[in-house]
From TrEMBL, chain B:
Xref: InterPro entries: MbnB/TglH/ChrH, Xyl_isomerase-like_sf
Pfam families: MbnB_TglH_ChrH
Protein's UniProt name: DUF692 domain-containing protein
PANTHER family, per the entry: UPF0276 PROTEIN HI_1600 (PTHR42194:SF1)
Organism: Micromonospora globbae
């Protein structure tokens, strides 16, 4: 502040303008970098591609672990393939938080008919417990409701959720 | 409450039972975002506080290195958690975690530029104005560097610490990871950092994937990291060292051995 006080007003304005410009530039470059890492954006100019690719992969691995904590049965239903399964789906898809990421993935797998029984049961339980529109945070359901996935049926009454019927398992 | 001393461990719900039974433990850290600002504390953590164990809230999502001003609600939360646990200090990272409306999901490095130093210092000042205790800043492990660094790591960190008056939370595993991935000597950084500013030290495990050493917090602490703890303590022993483990929790005997190894490397009393 002392050096600012010693300057003429127009110099101070000039300095402030230059600083604001540098901050705007930093903001834009940080946004480009995050987009490259999580949203499939291009590698920003000047960055070495291999280390950035390693960082992108590490982020997906970390996300897979976090989603597994929120969706333990979904993750377990893929065994050692979980990280690769999650990463394949999540690459280029920015996180919406672990709860929603797992939910979106489970629904996508249900659409494709590739949701394993354990994951289907977990999804049915979640669908019965909360209303999730795919865009905003899930909200608890007030009225009694059913959740279904892959043959599994779950029921929620007064906030208590249980599985009525297990998912169909191939004979 | 006194500042962190001796060997500590990052408190996590998954290992709360293990941590509760460490007889000599005087210090833990808790991820600030995992604690409700209005309380109550998770039961295991409340018991530790009742025993007079120092609890340091460790923020991971403030994004102090973001070009935008730090979110006042996130600062208020960290301040509230600090009060809730009667913390002697709080800690956060020299990093950014979101930009342009997207969450990165992890700590990302800053360019080591004057503009970035200005951005961090402005955000640290905003946080310091609201948080009732000192803040310690942690340099991160980064897999990549920005193309236009103006400062080397020691100069970048020292300038931020000097301008903010913050303490240094030195993560010795990050020092190891960065040096290994850049092909540099970790001792060069230790020799140039202001070690008298260290509030406490992090130690964690990692593993190599695809030609890079990753600071995973889910793998064992490598011998080379323990050696670096010894090198640090030979230069200036920090007041406290904390083991971070964030998943793939091993059997209690393995965690106990890691804590004992930390005590041995630093000369602090064993806590197990």
């Amino acid at each position: 502040m002392d050096d600012l006080a010693a300057r003429q007003p127009e110099q101070v304005d000039d300095l402030a303008a230059r600083q604001a410009e540098r901050v705007d530039d930093l903001a834009a470059r940080q946004a480009e970098l995050v987009a490259a890492l999580v949203a499939g954006g291009p590698v920003p100019p000047g960055f070495a591609p291999a280390p950035l690719a390693a960082a992108r992969t590490a982020l997906l691995r970390k996300r897979a672990g976090e989603v597994a904590r929120h969706w333990p049965l979904l993750a377990a239903s893929f065994g050692s393939d979980w990280t690769a399964t999650f990463a394949g789906w999540a690459a280029g898809r920015p996180t919406q938080g672990s709860l929603r990421d797992g939910w979106d993935l489970a629904r996508a797998l249900r659409e494709r008919g590739t949701l394993p029984p354990l994951g289907a049961e977990e999804l049915a339980l979640r669908e019965a417990a909360a209303r999730y529109d795919g865009r905003r945070a899930p909200r608890p359901r007030r009225l009694p409701s059913l959740g279904r996935a892959g043959g599994a049926v779950a029921v929620q009454v007064a906030g208590r959720v249980r599985l009525l019927r297990p998912a169909s398992r191939a004979a | 409450m006194t500042g962190p001393t001796g060997v500590g461990i990052g408190w996590r719900p998954e290992i709360a039972g293990f941590v509760a039974e460490l007889p000599g433990l005087r210090f833990v850290e808790v991820v600030a975002e995992s604690v409700a600002a209005s309380g109550p504390l998770p039961p295991g953590l409340a018991d530790l506080r009742g025993r007079g164990v120092t609890v340091v809230p460790h923020g991971v999502r403030l994004s102090l290195g973001g070009a935008e001003p730090v979110d006042p609600a996130r600062v208020a939360h960290l301040a509230a958690v600090a009060e809730l646990v009667a913390a002697p200090l709080v800690s956060e990272h020299i990093a950014f975690v979101r930009a342009g409306g997207l969450e990165a999901g992890h700590l990302l490095p800053l360019p080591r530029s004057r503009a970035a130093v200005d951005a961090v210092c402005a955000n640290v000042a905003r946080a310091q104005a609201e948080i009732p205790v000192p803040i310690a800043l942690e340099p991160i492990a980064a897999l990549f560097d920005w193309p236009d660094d103006e400062l080397d790591e020691a100069a970048f960190l020292t300038e931020i610490l000097d301008r903010t008056g913050a303490l240094l939370l030195l993560d010795i595993a990050n020092v190891y990871a960065n040096a290994r991935n850049r092909g540099a000597d970790p001792l060069d950084l230790l020799d140039r950092l202001p070690l008298e500013r260290v509030g406490y030290v992090h130690v964690a495990g990692g593993a190599e994937h695809g030609g890079f050493y990753h600071d995973t917090h889910t793998d064992p602490v490598p011998p080379a990291v323990l050696e670096l703890v010894g090198e640090l303590c030979a230069r200036r022993r920090p007041p406290a060292l904390l083991l971070e483990r964030d998943g793939a929790y091993p059997p209690a005997s393995v965690l106990r051995a890691e804590l004992d190894a930390l005590a041995a490397a630093s000369g602090f009393p064993v806590v197990t």
